[in-house]
Design a protein that fits this description.
This protein is α/β, with parallel strands linked by helices. The chain has a single domain, classed as Dihydrofolate Reductase, subunit A (3-Layer(aba) Sandwich), CATH 3.40.430. The chain has 4 helices and 10 strands, in the order E-E-H-E-H-E-E-H-E-H-E-E-E-E. An 8-stranded mixed β-sheet has the order 5-4-3-6-1-7-10-9, sandwiched between helices. The chain has a two-stranded antiparallel sheet with strand order 2-8. Strand 3, helix 2 and strand 4 form a beta-alpha-beta unit.
């Protein structure tokens, strides 16, 4: 499956791989949200229906693509897709579309993604949605540490990876 040559995954995960609890983010990290906004602005955000419903709104300045099996599901202002092939057609002209969740969509997309933007939340968190990746298939190209403070409940490291094609 080849969805897009510059397809990126963007995710925040705790040290134990948690990305969500009861359909919500289990932390408050204003610094991470600012980075997310900066890097995704002007691009397509591909997400599953449950992820969209957990966000609860369209994010301004970006095109939301919701992947759902329910053909009756409609959100004004969003693009609806019912297969990865439809997603591929919708994002075709974007220079860097992003997959933003949830866990099942990450599992499907990670094997074909070119880049991974990972916010590693430095905490062990209880949750019910997880993100896993094989670091041997990725090359770390940059990272930046952010300490916990009044805006960030936990310290975190923002990491950018590119696919390591030698390890495929």
């Amino acid at each position: 499956m080849d969805l897009h040559p510059n397809l990126s995954v963007i995710v925040a995960a705790s040290e134990n791989g948690v990305i969500g609890r009861n359909g919500e983010l289990p932390w408050r990290l204003s610094g991470d949200l600012r980075l997310f906004k900066k890097i995704t602005m002007g691009h397509h955000l591909v997400m599953g229906r449950k992820t969209y419903e957990s966000i609860g709104r369209l994010l301004p300045g970006r095109t939301t693509v919701i992947l759902t099996g329910n053909r009756d599901y409609q959100i004004d202002g969003a693009r609806m897709a019912h297969s990865l092939e439809e997603v591929s057609r919708i994002i075709a002209n974007d220079t860097q579309p992003f997959v933003v969740g949830g866990a099942e969509l990450y599992r499907q997309i990670l094997p074909v993604a070119k880049r991974l933007f990972l916010t590693r939340v430095h905490a062990e968190i209880f949750g019910d949605a997880f993100f896993e990746f094989d670091p041997t298939k990725w090359q770390l190209v940059s990272e930046e540490f952010f300490p916990a403070n009044t805006s960030n409940e936990f310290a975190f490291t923002w990491q950018e990876f590119e696919r390591n094609y030698q390890q495929m």
